[in-house]
Endonuclease/exonuclease/phosphatase domain-containing protein (Chytriomyces confervae), 502 residues
Amino acid sequence: MRQAFQPDCFFHADKNSIRIANKSGNTIALLIAGVTTTLSHGHVFQFAATDWTPIHINPFTQQAHFKYIPPSSHLIFTADPTLPLGVSLAPGTPSMLTLVNATRARLRVSIHPTVQEWHSIEPHQSIQLSLSNHSESRVPLSIQYFDGARVGLIATSGQCVSIAPHSLPPPSFDPPPLPLKRLSVTSCNMRYGTANDLLNSWHYRREMLQQILHGKHPPTILCLQEALLFQRQEILARFPWLQMVGVGRERDLGGEGTPVLFDSRVFMVRFSDTFWLSETPEVPGSVTESWGNHLARIATMVHLVPVTESVKKQRVSQVPEVLVVNVHLDHEAPIAREQGILLVCQRIREYLERHGLKKCLVLLMGDFNCEQEGAPENKAVEQEIGLLDVLALQPKNLGHGTFHDFGGSAKVPRIDFIYASPEWKSKVADSGIVKDCIGGQEEGFWWPSDHFPVVAEFSLDSQDSGQMSLKRFHHARPFKADFAAAVVLVLIVFTILLLSPS
């Protein structure tokens, strides 16, 4: 089941209706489009809906909910309706309605039927609203969270409504066992979490995306694009063995980021940097107007070195130093893409030369937003720093795109890439485009993002070459020992013969 913003709300096959089932043991009252309907225990009520629908549940009691419900929803009430998760009531200022934002993000609230008037509340701030213009002492209050989820309740004058986070953090995943046999890298444009994507909003797809990222081979190195701070924090909460490097692209270091996450049991950071793709790369939020882009673009560079303990656990020395660069090129301006990737290549080349890193694995990953096969930005990577397109090594990836706009059908060219040092070509164990989704033909398909993630795996197992050298070594040692013993024996015999009387 695809869980929605309430624990009792799921999706069913009919995308053009809403279904409500009462398993609470009591009769509940519903107010839908001005019409009141009672629903007895054990009964189901279904009605046509092609858009988000406001529903009052038990609208004449203090325990009422007010929800915007999307089409295809299936609500199941297993107990008497209570206040929405995270919302609590307390006495407040007489004749005023006090609203307190106890979350870490901006909230919006609206008193119905004045739906057009939304009031913003900053984190850890409060506002007071007068209900003198409302004929009823009890009014439906709608709350919109930063991720697009909406809940509601019936509020009365003189109350203080405290709004805490509306969802509990899910349990973290189990880390992959050590020692690692493969270095698994993933690049994913996760779609920024405040986009008004309706049923594809972040709150609906975050669990699916996290499950897919964990997948069969959890990433040792993970590069994300369009990642807002709260999305990065949620990923870190589910993947506690990962550490993150990177900031947002705006002048205050907020906004979308291109973070690099890595397995802290295997790697530690020697150097990291975020630079802006402009003529002033050290200036946060900078944009070069002559390049044609209107949005700031950034790249995150991280030099990872093996943790000593991880090498011991690996019992091999094949855990490489890795220079990772995560980039998100502009979606509109070809000049900005080309100039931006040239700057990235220059930074990579200068860093490798400055530190003499000849055996370092270089990984350049991200969303290139290229418009054609063999675009200038792709040629620049191959010609300027000689990296190879890892996904192009596998025939199964040819002719497949990665941007599908939540439709599941991606057009070519592919715009998400993993480039790697050519010396590691023989170590590429696998690569691919992850097209996992949930759903089916009847209920439709749901996708974790508007891009397909791309993955690559590099073999760290030195069994073939290592065992060959060890065999040669072990076979050679007895041979050398026997030869030396034979030489000593001959010398002893020869000495005895010389010293013995003739």
